[in-house]
């Protein structure tokens, strides 16, 4: 369809935002919008400048016969920190304390606007690394993992704690549950993850780290590699074997008796943490 330049730039921008990390040739746009390749190139240059100045994302131009453009979503440090600081305040609300010293997160992890921005923050924290899939366990972390995978435009796989016939053939590992300190088992369908994948593990709350350790063990069963671990929140008062991870929020203290929660910004903005 033939479009004016202003109209063309709108639809190209929309396409790039909805197809992140995907290489698209300029010829695709030229044929779709009945425009010269040189005109499309000029359009992309203008969009690239606007996206970068507004910190919406970056557009990379790949030269050569099989080249094109790739859009990488970003979020400004200012916006990211503002969001995380706001989440700190919300997580510190006294009515979030649950029996056993747990924190209620479901409302935050079911709000689309929060998930979308948290997904962008986590994806940005692993910018430049090749990631083939996002992995999580079948709990409240599923929407979060889905949000990160959506930003990265890659699949996400769900590890389950119980065997389901609909999963087909599965691989299982034993792990020590951080909450119960018991040996438990987790399962992953053989069809869920391709061998030699580079995987980002995402979870909602890091306490003892047993669940994440179990997922890391599963990766070795699939001959896959761990890129990193990202969690929405962590409990700083619990000793754990996992030391390399990124967290948005750190719960530094939970006082059940006085119903007080102390929450700080996690290490997500610390460039030295992997």
Automatic annotation (TrEMBL):
Q: Which GO terms describe its molecular function?
A: DNA binding
> Which positions fall inside the Phosphoribosyltransferase domain?
107-262
One Pfam family in the UniProt entry: Pribosyltran
Q: Which InterPro entries match?
A: PRTase-like, PRTase_dom, Pur/Pyrimidine_PRTase, PuR_N, PurR_Bsub, WH-like_DNA-bd_sf, WH_DNA-bd_sf
Q: Tell me the protein's name.
A: Purine operon repressor
Q: Where is the Bacterial purine repressor N-terminal domain?
A: 4-73
Q: Which organism is it from?
A: Streptococcus thermophilus (strain ATCC BAA-250 / LMG 18311)
**Is this entry keyworded Translocase?**
no
What's this protein's family per the entry? Answer: Belongs to the purine/pyrimidine phosphoribosyltransferase family. PurR subfamily.
Q: Which PANTHER family match?
A: HYPOXANTHINE/GUANINE PHOSPHORIBOSYLTRANSFERASE (PTHR43864), PUR OPERON REPRESSOR (PTHR43864:SF2)
The UniProt subunit note reads as follows: Homodimer.
Q: Name one GO biological process term.
A: negative regulation of purine nucleobase metabolic process
Keyword line: DNA-binding, Transcription, Transcription regulation
């Amino acid at each position: 369809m033939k479009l004016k330049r202003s109209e063309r730039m709108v639809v190209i921008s929309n396409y790039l935002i909805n197809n992140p990390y995907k290489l698209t040739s300029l010829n695709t746009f030229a044929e779709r919008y009945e425009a010269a390749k040189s005109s499309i190139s000029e359009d992309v240059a203008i969009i690239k400048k606007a996206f970068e100045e507004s910190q919406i994302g970056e557009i990379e131009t790949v030269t050569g016969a099989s080249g094109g453009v790739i859009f990488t979503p970003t979020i400004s440090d200012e916006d990211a920190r503002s969001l995380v600081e706001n989440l700190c305040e919300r997580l510190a609300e006294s009515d979030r304390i649950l029996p056993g010293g747990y924190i209620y997160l479901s409302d935050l992890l079911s709000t689309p606007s929060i998930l979308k921005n948290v997904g962008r923050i986590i994806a940005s924290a692993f910018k430049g690394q090749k990631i083939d899939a996002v992995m999580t366990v079948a709990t409240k972390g599923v929407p979060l993992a889905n949000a990160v995978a959506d930003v990265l435009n890659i699949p996400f796989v769900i590890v389950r704690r119980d065997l389901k016939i609909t999963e087909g053939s599965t691989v299982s590992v034993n792990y020590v549950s951080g909450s119960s300190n018991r040996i438990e088992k987790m399962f992953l369908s053989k069809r869920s993850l391709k061998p030699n994948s580079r995987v980002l593990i995402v979870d909602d709350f890091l306490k003892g780290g047993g669940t994440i350790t179990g997922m890391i063990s599963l990766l070795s069963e699939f001959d896959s590699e761990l890129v990193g671990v990202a969690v929405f929140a962590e409990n700083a008062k619990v000793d754990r074997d996992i030391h390399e991870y990124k967290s948005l929020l750190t719960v530094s203290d939970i006082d059940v008796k006085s119903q007080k929660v102390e929450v700080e910004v996690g290490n997500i903005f610390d460039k030295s943490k992997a």
